[in-house]
């Protein structure tokens, strides 16, 4: 599995962080972000997130937690009785992006061809400790835009799905 071109992965990240920014602002935590729950329109990189059956509303207020279903995309606090929140979705998105780029989400290793700054950005999203990873999708969205601008000239790149 080669994965997607890193520039496409950054556009998917852009769209997903925009979505997360919106639903987190409403108090909603998806809780189960995985590659098979993201749909991407290749012609414009727009993304859709599916699989909302386990989503929680204001878990910090209600104390709700998520039952563990296992898997490498699941945040460590899931199933362990830890508090879940936006940081939980950020972890799962980070693992998903590592997988999309052709990396190994179990070890967080990525192909050598992936820009080191991008690798560090993704590794920051998947820190084991919830306190050590980003908590705010809006701030992360802004940071990824700065990263994207520092790495490449802004231009649309067609995603070839053949």
Structural summary, described in words:
A hairpin with a 6-residue loop joins strand 2 and strand 3. The two termini are 15 Å apart. This protein has helices spanning 6-25, 59-62, 86-100, 116-125, 137-151, and strands at 28-29, 38-40, 47-49, 56-57. It has 162 residues and is mainly alpha-helical. The mean pLDDT is 92. 40% of the residues lie in helices and 6% in strands. The relative contact order is 0.19. The protein contains 5 helices and 4 strands, in the order H-E-E-E-E-H-H-H-H. The strands form 2 sheets. Strands 1-4 form a two-stranded antiparallel ribbon. A two-stranded antiparallel sheet has the order 2-3.
Task: Using the alpha-carbon principal axes, give the shape.
Answer: globular
Q: How many H/I helical runs?
A: 5
Mean pLDDT figure: 92
**In whole angstroms, how far apart are the ends?**
15 Å
Helix content: 25-40%
- The Rg value, from CA coordinates, equals 15 Å
Largest sheet: 2 strands, antiparallel
The share of residues in extended strands comes to: 5-15%
Q: List the secondary-structure elements in sequence, H or E.
A: HEEEEHHHH
> Strand pairing plus helix content: what structural class?
mainly alpha
Side-by-side strand order of the widest sheet: 1-4
Low-confidence stretches: none
Count of strand segments: 4
């Amino acid at each position: 599995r080669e994965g997607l071109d890193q520039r496409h992965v950054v556009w998917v990240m852009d769209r997903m962080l925009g979505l997360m920014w919106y639903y987190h602002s409403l108090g909603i935590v998806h809780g189960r972000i995985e590659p098979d729950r993201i749909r991407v329109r290749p012609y414009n990189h727009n993304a859709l997130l599916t699989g909302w059956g386990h989503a929680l509303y204001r878990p910090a207020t209600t104390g709700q937690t998520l039952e563990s279903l296992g898997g490498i995309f699941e945040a460590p606090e899931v199933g362990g009785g830890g508090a879940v929140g936006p940081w939980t979705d950020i972890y799962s998105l980070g693992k998903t992006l590592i997988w999309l780029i052709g990396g190994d989400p179990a070890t967080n290793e990525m192909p050598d061809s992936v820009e080191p700054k991008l690798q560090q950005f993704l590794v920051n999203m998947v820190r084991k400790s919830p306190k050590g990873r980003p908590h705010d999708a809006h701030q992360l969205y802004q940071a990824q835009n700065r990263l994207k601008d520092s790495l490449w000239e802004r231009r649309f790149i067609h995603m070839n799905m053949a």
